[in-house]
Amino acid sequence: MSALLEVRDLTVAYGNIVAVQGLSLDVHEGEIVTLIGSNGAGKSTTLRTISGLLKARSGSVAFNGERIDHLEGHETVAKGICQSPEGRRIFGGLTVDENLELGAFLRKDKAEIAADREYVLGLFPRLRERLTQKAGTMSGGEQQMLAVARALMGRPRLLILDEPSMGLAPVLVDLIFETIVKINEQGTTILLVEQNALAALRVAKRAYVLESGKIKLSGDAAELAKDPEVIKAYLGG
Amino acid sequence: MTGAPGRSAPTIDPKDLTLKISGAIIGLVIVLWLGKNFLYDPGQFLTVAIQGLKNGALYALIALGYTMVYGIIQLINFAHGDLFMLGTMMSAFVITTVLGQSSPGPAGYAAFVVALVVSMAFCGGLNVGIERFAYRRLRRAPKLAPLITAVGVSFVLQFIGLRWNGSGQKQWQSVIPDGQINIGSVEIDVQTIIIFAVTIPLLLLLTWLVTRTKQGRAMRATAQDQDAARLMGINVDRTISFTFALGGALAGAAGLMYQQVVGTTAYNLGFQLGLIAFTSAVLGGIGNLTGAVLGGLLIGLIQGLNDGLVYGLGQQWSQSVVFTILILLMVFKPAGLLGKNVTEKV
Fold first, then answer.
1. Which of A20, A102, B141, B339 could bond A42 through an S-S bridge, CB–CB 3.0 to 4.6 Å?
2. In this structure, what CATH number is given to the domain that contains residue B107?
3. pLDDT in tens, B5-34
4. Is residue B346 part of a domain?
5. Which parts of chain A have pLDDT scores under 50?
6. Enclosing domain of residue A200
7. Chain A residues lying within 8 Å of B235, measured CB to CB
8. Beta bridge partners of A206
9. How far apart are CA B185 and CA A216, in angstroms?
10. Number of folded domains in chain B?
């Protein structure tokens, strides 16, 4: 069985600075896969390249058996990849509801969109109270919920989450991770990037450890969580 | 009675206080001046005010093009005024040269409508072309590069106007009747009514497009964060083209009305009106659509009052008064009337 997302020998550079070098990873249908690593390891660069916001210098990205590395950002969304980017990047000047509508920008199935809106508002009841509020006036945690909800509104086959727990209070971090598991249980495949490696390894099935732009370790998430090297470098052991 | 508990005495920044006091004094002087003029002759006051708003409506239409483009790609499109200038020439070409209309009447009105459509399509299309060929490839370049390019495009358009219209002014016959309507002692000419009859529906249409349609929502999203917009599936290039098309079309409409009301075309028209319209956009808060309309109307009104009132400084001071007010406003409200001080959030 071939993977839903297949990244092979990906190299991405900003000018002369190589951010990702020869990276390969697979995400299979129905999985949660996490990519962990320290600051500047190349995690966000990898995700931005998969989403088509950056162009790879070499290597390939295939989704559902089809090459997508030549596509622009908006075209990968049409293929079924939705990303909640690092730093949330919600549209602060627009209302929460407008943000959600934008998440479903490419969809035309009105009834289904309304159903998904109910679904994400069920996942994050807090957003329902804030529908008419400007998104930028919400707290960081609420903005993060909106960023995830907005990505879900595209009804993705692959949901990419970049640092969904960044800057959040511990209780909210727990809520976000619980929700990630819930979303996955509903059948959405998830590629998760986290600095909070402990929590990420707990929810993921498989994991990749990225260091200085290269995959250093990979395998079963539970196994990696016990790996002394991983514990030392990322789990504060 | 006791004061609110737990509230410490407000600290007063002397600089802030000076600014506030001087602002209040300036405001008071303006109110007194307006009051004196109004009492001297209310009819004349309202007549010149409406006359001012008529010009203001044209400034507003052009200012919208500046502010929309700035809002979406943070570029001051110096060529925008020249686009308006080519709109005046296209209008004259359609109405007089092609359709041969030079007087009011059913045929003249039909020609006006045809010219409105042609001029809007022409300027909108031209603006899209300019963005596509001159600005798009510079989108990731340092800010100065597209700015200088815009100045260059402005010259290119001016020289096209020079070839088209010659080096002097040309006079044209209008298809809008000359008459006026009197309400009490207030005079409103037919031209003013036509300008408002065209401008108001256009502004309503624009508001609907920007706030109610999917394309409008894509515009606002792209203006805020291009990469995030891409992640929603929004085609950013197409959205920017759409914005240029809208801005250009409004300049085309303004071009037609200027050509019909003022009756002249000249290759350097875009510079003068463009500058005023750009000022309107800044006055209202650049990037803010309502602000651009408000700024345009306000500048028109200030000009009208200054030029037409007995105690005004007269037409020769018109520009000085407008820019003095701009400078004063910038001192007190640096982001413009409706602009927000944007702080980068990290």
1. A20
2. 1.10.3470
3. 445 556 667 778 888 888 888 888 888 888
4. no
5. none
6. 29-55+71-234
7. 72, 74
8. A33, A220
9. 85
10. 1
Nearest chain B alpha carbon to A92: B224
Q: Is residue B88 assigned to a domain?
A: yes
* Per-residue DSSP letter, B138: G
In angstroms, rounded to a whole number, what is the distance separating the alpha carbons of residues B211 and B205?
10
* Angstrom distance (rounded) from CA A151 to CA A188: 12
The total domain count for chain A is 1
Tokens 């300049």 appear where?
B251
Give the torsion through C-alpha atoms of A226, A230, A233, A236, to 10 deg: -20
Say if residues B122 and B143 touch (Cβ distance below 8 Å): no
- Is the pLDDT at B268 greater than 80, yes or no? yes
Domain that holds residue B248: 40-332
CB burial of A5-28 (b: ≥16 within 10 Å; e: otherwise) equals bbbeebbbbeeeebbbbebebbbe
pLDDT at B270 over 80: yes
Tokens for A163, please give them. 């640092």
Higher pLDDT, B121 or B21: B121
Residues of chain A contacting B, Cβ within 8 Å: 51-53, 72-74, 77-78, 82-83, 85, 89-94, 98, 101-103, 105-106, 150-151, 154
How far is residue A232's CA from residue B192's CA, in Å, rounded to a whole number? Answer: 77
Residue A115 burial class via C-beta count within 10 angstroms: exposed 0-12, middle 13-18, buried 19 and up: exposed
Residues of A in contact with B236 (CB under 8 A): 73-74
Taking the mean position of all CA atoms in its chain, how far away is CA B324? 18
Q: Calculate how close chain B gets to A83, using CA atoms only, in Å.
A: 6
For the four alpha carbons of B273, B276, B279 and B285, in that order, the dihedral sign comes to negative
The pLDDT assigned to B4 comes to 46
Query: Which tens digit of pLDDT belongs to each residue from A125-135?
Result: 999 999 999 99
For residue B162 the two structure tokens come to: 């020079």
In a domain, B30, yes or no: no
Q: Do A77 and B231 touch (CB under 8 A)?
A: yes
Q: Is A14 helix (H, G, I), strand (E, B) or coil?
A: strand
Residue in chain B nearest A78 by alpha carbon = B233
- Please report the DSSP string for B286-326 in residue order: TT-HHHHHHHHHHHHHHHHHHHHSTTS--GGGHHHHHHHHH
A209 domain residue, yes or no = yes
pLDDT band at B341 (very low <50, low <70, confident <90, very high): low
pLDDT band at residue B339 using 50, 70 and 90 as cut-offs: confident
* Residue B102 located in a structural domain: yes
The predicted-structure confidence for B68-109, as pLDDT tens digits, reads as follows 999 999 999 999 999 999 999 999 999 999 999 988 999 999
